[in-house]
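Propose amino acids for all 307 sites.
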């Protein structure tokens, strides 16, 4: 199934974003090993777990959060090394470990079934969770999965130069030497031309990145790009073997995992369900939360009608 939404910056139903500080005030921490993990929970209904991207945090979801919490019990964490969670310096960060974190948290809450809404880095975590479910390794069921722009298929991922440098042997130097000017230039490039973040919005993203020395571990976190290549068979296979409903919501103006990724999804996934958002970049849920919300709700209403 293919749906395309028109290009156009309609007014947001959600109003102004909350600040990262306000977001933090509404959260709680729990322990993952020796480390403190920031989490948010709100709403009533079927559990919906949000999985954020790199290099940001659960705050990314703040614009669509009040819409989702009208219909779901919405849960999100800042994964280890991101946002307001701990950011250990000497740590072997991996998608597998982040999936352990998510799995342990969900199982610890006693949830029997969850929906997943994943973006970017979180898409790889969702793929690993799907693989585990297919192997009988989860203590809960995944009811459905909705993906936002992410490198589901590493062969068509087009990383920014700064990402390539961070993943190179000199990544440690690049990470520690990242300036605000370099960050603003590269991060803004991920957004559609007419949806560029304001100075204040870039302040917020920078705050989350640099909180608790986060800038110094970017070269460790970005090892996920190599993991995607190493685990391609497992993670793409999990998509192709998935029994639950899946939808890809794709911002087509994304230069790294936009239109090309959506095309590859249509090629490799049986009966692909894709919604293309014209004029939207790499952060659809932030750039155009109303369109994402409508596409997500339509997906769930369709599945409910089919049951």
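Proposal:
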């Amino acid at each position: 199934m293919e749906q395309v939404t028109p290009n156009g910056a309609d007014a947001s139903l959600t109003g102004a974003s909350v600040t990262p500080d306000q977001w933090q005030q509404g959260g709680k921490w729990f322990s993952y090993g020796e480390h403190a993990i920031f989490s948010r929970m709100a709403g009533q209904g079927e559990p919906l777990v949000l999985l954020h991207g790199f290099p940001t945090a659960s705050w990314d979801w703040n614009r669509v959060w009040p819409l989702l919490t009208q219909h779901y019990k919405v849960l999100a964490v800042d994964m280890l090394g991101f946002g307001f969670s701990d950011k250990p310096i000497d740590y072997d960060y991996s998608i597998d470990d982040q999936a352990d974190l998510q799995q342990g948290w969900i199982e610890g809450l006693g949830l029997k079934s969850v929906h997943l809404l994943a973006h970017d880095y979180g898409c790889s975590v969702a793929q690993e969770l799907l693989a585990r479910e297919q192997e009988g390794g989860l203590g809960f069921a995944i009811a459905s999965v909705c993906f936002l722009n992410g490198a589901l298929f590493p062969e068509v991922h087009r990383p920014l130069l700064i990402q390539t440098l961070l993943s190179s042997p000199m990544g440690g130097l690049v990470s520690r030497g990242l300036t605000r000017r370099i960050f603003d230039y590269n991060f803004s490039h991920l957004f559609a031309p007419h949806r560029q973040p304001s100075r204040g919005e870039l302040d917020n993203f920078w705050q989350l990145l640099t909180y608790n020395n986060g800038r110094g571990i970017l070269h460790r976190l970005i090892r996920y790009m190599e993991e995607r290549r190493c685990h391609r068979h497992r993670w793409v296979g999990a998509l192709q073997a998935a029994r639950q409903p899946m939808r890809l919501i794709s911002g087509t103006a994304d230069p790294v995992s936009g239109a090309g990724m959506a095309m590859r999804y249509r090629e490799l996934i049986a009966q692909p369900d894709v919604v293309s958002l014209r004029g939207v970049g790499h952060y659809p849920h932030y750039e155009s939360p109303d369109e994402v919300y409508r596409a997500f709700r339509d997906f769930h209403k369709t599945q409910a009608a089919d049951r």
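The chain is about 40% helix and 15% strand. Residues 289-306 form the longest helix (18 residues).
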